[in-house]
Amino acid sequence: MKHIIAFAGSNSKQSINKQLVTYTSSLVENLDTTILDLNDFEVPIFSVDLEQETGFPEHAKRLMNIIKEADGLIISLAEHNGAYTAVFKNLFDWISRVEPKTFQNKPMLLMATSPGARGGLTVLEMAKARFPRHDSNIVATYSLPSFFDNFSEGKITHSDLNAQLLKAVKLFQEALNH
């Protein structure tokens, strides 16, 4: 059975992106799914000097190994001030040093949501431009606008937005099966 990992680019205990990634991973059929929490991969603030002095943090190496062992990735990025969250950016800096081909050409469903009408589109566009430099295979993207208006009781409540997500999940699933 294929195994995917899913995580939100956030360390918030009430992360709306973690809620979205959890719901999305439940829609993927016949796969073993592990939902990660970035709080379990705490690393010091990246610095070239620190890397030279101490090497790579164990949690960065562990996350990179988890990515290597997975067959696919579902990532939902939180947006802070129009960019990645500090926790995601810092961890991404470390794991991309451990392995420059960070995403290992694994099929990826890349998502974002926010309370606002743009649904994290700025960070989503940033990642779509950046991740291919790290060997991503983004097979589908999805943005959920106005999270609190469109998500309730663990699922998307707006039928058109849910249909868009189901199309993205289908593309992701097809890429995993090839």
Brief account:
It holds the Pfam family FMN_red. This protein has 178 residues and is an alpha/beta fold. It has seven helices and seven strands; from the N terminus they run βαβααβαβαβαββα.
Verbal overview:
The longest helix is centred in the C-terminal third of the chain and has 18 residues. Helix 3 crosses helix 4. The mean pLDDT is 97. The strands form 2 sheets. The chain has a 5-stranded parallel β-sheet, sandwiched between helices. It has 178 residues and is α/β, with parallel strands linked by helices.
- Uncertain regions spanning at least 5 consecutive residues: none
* CATH architecture annotation: 3-Layer(aba) Sandwich
Give the helix level as a range of percent: 40-55%
Shape, principal axes of CA atoms: globular
Query: Could you tell me the strand content as a percent range?
Result: 15-25%
Q: If strands are numbered along the chain, what order do they take across the biggest sheet?
A: 2-1-3-4-5
Compute the number of structural domains: 1
* Average residue pLDDT: 97
